[in-house]
Design goal:
With about 120 residues, this protein is an alpha+beta fold. It contains four helices and three strands. The radius of gyration is 18 Å and the shape is elongated.
Length: about 120
């Protein structure tokens, strides 16, 4: 990704994070973080990777976000209107890396506990 794309991705990430923070009530009070934004070379499309906390059903929440995609994009447009000519089409994805980290922490803790039991 070029410097221009990285800067634009940072702007998009910052403003989307603000939108999700202020609108958390609209999204089942889930804590939504944006782990990564990838921008196409023409700045017309953005892949937004989301991590969810405080929610049981991630796919249901992702469906709700996709249902509100046009409204989210409209709010983003009002925030970046002075910084960009183009408001990219947004595509949302669930970022599973945070879940993997939590899983690995549990596995490591379990291994540590088993080692302590064997050591005694």
């Amino acid at each position: 990704m070029g410097i221009r794309q990285e800067k634009f991705a940072g702007i998009i990430q910052q403003h989307l994070a603000d939108i999700f923070l202020k609108e958390s009530g609209s999204f089942n009070n889930a804590f939504i973080t944006i782990s990564k934004v990838e921008i196409s070379p023409d700045l017309g499309y953005a892949k937004v990777f989301l991590s969810f906390l405080n929610t049981a059903n991630k796919t249901e929440l992702l469906d709700l976000i996709n249902f509100n995609n046009k409204e989210i994009r409209r709010r983003l447009a009002s925030k970046i209107k002075n910084q960009a000519r183009i408001v990219p089409e947004l595509t949302f994805f669930v970022d599973e890396s945070l879940d993997y980290v939590f899983h690995m922490e549990k596995v490591m803790q379990k291994v540590k506990e088993e080692d302590e039991k064997k050591g005694k």
